[in-house]
Design brief:
With 71 residues, the chain is α+β, with helices and mostly antiparallel strands. It has helices at 17-26, 52-70; strands at 7-11, 32-33, 44-48.
């Protein structure tokens, strides 16, 4: 989804926002579940764009989650 601020909205595949929220917490990140936004459900999450260092850590966390989901 296009973004015009420092937030990114994502649609999850294969797990819901509750599961993803817990996985991100374990990785040291807090994301926003977006199922209370009008028209969205538990497949949607939102996270903030921070400084470059935090963004790199988030990207690595997401890659690790993807790898662990494949096993």
């Amino acid at each position: 989804f296009l973004t015009y601020g420092n937030f990114v909205l994502c649609k999850l595949k294969g797990l819901d926002s509750d599961e993803f929220y817990k996985l991100c917490l374990d990785g040291g990140f807090v994301i926003r579940k977006a199922d209370n936004f009008r028209g969205l459900d538990k497949q949607f999450i939102r996270f903030a764009i921070k400084d470059n260092g935090r963004n790199e850590k988030l990207i690595q966390c997401l890659k690790n989650l993807e790898l662990s989901a494949k096993h």
